[in-house]
Design goal:
heterodimer; A: six-stranded mixed sheet; globular; B: 114 residues; seven-stranded mixed sheet; 11 strands
Chain lengths: 109, 114
């Protein structure tokens, strides 16, 4: 079967760095996405990886290793507003997304 | 800019009643999607439409129907609601065919079926 695994919850301190991991097993691969979802709000697009390596976008970076079925989202200089759930999703061979359950990130002062 | 608008924001519905969740986008995106989000589970695709006039079934289509009469509107209908359909429903759109383009989501419709 197809599945996406990511930690349920993580806690970090304001100003610090946190890495949220995502491992996947899918039939085929057509890109890996990270979305941010604040409580009670809609998911919003953060990043997209289709080739191995690191994609950097401001304080956020996303890494992909296709051979290992692994990605991480790195958040630097954490701010209180980064408290949210982070959703990992992978495109399968039919170009449909398989979604992880999300990682709830709690930022403490 | 409106983007995607969903209505209603929340609704309590008696089991057995019908309900239509509305979704309208102003981005002229070809592809539109309906997902449900339940605690502890990833987003699950209910139905999708790659272009006006066409629709397809997603992972969990049973009990739901959709139509796509034009580019902007993609309503989701529950013909006879059951408690297991209690969920938060998100409409999304993309300018790419297939979900592997950036998705733009509406604010969600919280449905409680009693």
């Amino acid at each position: 079967g197809q599945n996406i695994d990511q930690p349920t919850e993580m806690t970090a301190t304001e100003g610090a760095i946190v890495q949220i991991n995502c491992t996947y097993q899918t039939s085929g691969f057509n890109g890996l996405f990270w979305y941010q979802q604040h409580a009670g709000e809609a998911p919003t697009f953060l990043s997209y990886n289709v080739l191995d390596g690191l994609e950097e976008k401001g304080r956020f970076s996303s890494f992909l290793s296709r051979s290992k079925g692994y990605s991480y989202l790195l958040l630097k200089e954490l701010q209180m507003k980064d408290s949210a759930s982070y959703l990992c999703a992978v495109g399968d061979s039919n170009y449909q997304l398989i979604w992880g359950a999300g990682t709830k990130l709690i930022i403490k002062p | 800019t409106a983007g995607i608008t969903q209505a209603p924001t929340s609704q309590i519905l008696a089991a057995g009643r019908s309900m239509t969740l509305r979704c309208t986008q102003d981005m002229r995106h070809n592809a539109m999607y309906w997902y449900r989000q339940d605690l502890g589970l990833g987003l699950r695709l209910i139905h999708y439409s790659n272009t006006a006039g066409t629709t397809g079934k997603g992972e969990v289509p049973d009990g739901y129907s959709v139509s796509r009469a034009n580019t902007d509107d993609f309503p989701l209908t529950l013909a006879s609601a059951v408690p297991s359909q209690t969920s938060v429903y998100f409409c999304a759109s993309s300018d790419s065919t297939g979900e592997t383009g950036e998705l733009f989501f509406g604010e969600g419709s919280r449905l409680t079926v009693l």
